[in-house]
Amino acid sequence: MVFIGPGLLAYIFGMMAFRSRVSGVYLSIMTQAMTYALMLAFFRNEMGFGGNNGLTDFKEIAGFSLQEPHTKLVLFILTAIALAIGYYISNYIVKSKMGRVITATRDAESRVRFVGYKPENYKVWIFVVSAMLAGVAGALYVPQVGIINPGEFSPLNSIEMVIWVAIGGRCTLYGAIIGAIVVSYAKTRFTAIMPEAWLFGLGGLFVLVTLYLPKGIAGLLPNVFDKFSVFKSDTDKDTEQKDVADAEVKS
Question: What are the residue ranges spanned by the domains of the chain?
Fold first, then answer.
């Protein structure tokens, strides 16, 4: 169900949206509207998911207590493994032929359509894969938190994920991981000090990154590595010159 449920829902929605050539801002509005509609539906007690309280009192998983440190460690390791597998799959997709078509569709969909491809098919495919990855993330999230309620359907969570990518780096896969770690850590620290001001801080952070770091944190890393390599090469040159000078003195 972790794969089938999200994948099937994404396939149905994707077929209707992408076949109608909905994209850009309109697609964002549709996805947010669907999420909000699901949130309102799950808030109703008639749905059988606990209403406002959601599903609570998760104490065991596969017979092991969720309060045990050993269980928490295992779940953390499983999360890290799932992240590594998800990164490998995403990297494989990006470098594959389908990935190149998806990238071309992002940059110039009309040209992709002109050369004979059907971008909507590739969009549906990548949309389904993304939904399955999200399903795995949700399945690992709930046991570690111990509660899940309809508030998790809030559009704010989707916006926060977009900010993860913007802060981490939009053109890299590892940028999203960096952004998630940075923003989640900032949220944990900031909400403990001034919980009511977190959203303003998050919005300000997004604006600053958009203006001054368009490529995100990941965009800074090549520059940092280049500086280190330049420093290392200069050091090597100085060492070589010193060795040559010593050799000349000895001779």
Answer: 1-152, 154-251
